[in-house]
Design a protein that fits this description.
By secondary structure, the protein is α+β, with helices and mostly antiparallel strands. The chain has helices spanning about 15-20, 30-35, 85-95, 115-135, 135-140, 145-150, and strands at about 40-55, 55-65, 75-80. The relative contact order is 0.15.
C-alpha cells in the first residue's frame, strides 16, 4: 500500500528527499559566520558595592550594557544604581506606557539587607528586571528614561520627574 505507515523508516519519504533539489549554499567567511548578531543587547547587573556614608549604608549595582541597537547612544556602557533608583525607573516606566506590563522588582528587604546572600538575591532579581524591560522594543523606543538610566553616568532623576 503506497504512502501507508511503514515502521522500517524507508517508505515514500526517502523518495521525496532523493528527488528534492539541493539548495546552492555558499560557504560563509568565519567573521560572518561567527560575527556579531544583527541586533543584540546584553544587560548585566553585577558587582554590588555596599557603601557606608555616615549613618547611611546602601548598596549600588553596576549595570553593564553591550549593544549594537542604533537607539542606544553607546555600544558599551557601565553605570551604578541604587535599589531606590530601580524603584524610580519602574514607576516612571509604568507612567510612560500603559501598553506594556512592567515586571516587578525583587521585594524590599528590612532585615539582614547587607548580608551577601540577600544582596546576591536582589542582584539576580534586578538583572531579570533589566533584561526584560531593556529588551522590550516598545520601551526601547518609547521611554524617555530607560536608555539614559542604563547608560548615562550623570543620570539625574530630577530631570525626568517633573
Amino acid at each position: 500500500m503506497a504512502g501507508g505507515n511503514n515502521n522500517t523508516g524507508g517508505g515514500s519519504s526517502s523518495m521525496a528527499f532523493s528527488s528534492a533539489t539541493r539548495l546552492d549554499t555558499k560557504r560563509q567567511a568565519p567573521e560572518d559566520e561567527y560575527g556579531e548578531p544583527e541586533d543584540f543587547l546584553e544587560v548585566q547587573v553585577c558587582n554590588p558595592l555596599t557603601s557606608d556614608v555616615g549613618r547611611n549604608m546602601y548598596t549600588t549595582y553596576e549595570i553593564i550594557c553591550r549593544t549594537n541597537i542604533p537607539i542606544f547612544k553607546l555600544k558599551t556602557s557601565s553605570v551604578r544604581r541604587r535599589y531606590s533608583d530601580f524603584e524610580w525607573l519602574r514607576d516612571m516606566l509604568e507612567r510612560e506606557t500603559a501598553r506594556v506590563t512592567i515586571p516587578p522588582l525583587p521585594g524590599k528587604v528590612f532585615t539582614n539587607r547587607f548580608a551577601d546572600e540577600v544582596i546576591e538575591s536582589r542582584r539576580e532579581g534586578l538583572q531579570r528586571f533589566m533584561q526584560i524591560v531593556a529588551g522590550h522594543p516598545l520601551l526601547q523606543t518609547g521611554s524617555k528614561v530607560l536608555i539614559p538610566f542604563m547608560q548615562d553616568r550623570n543620570f539625574d532623576k530630577d530631570m525626568y520627574s517633573a
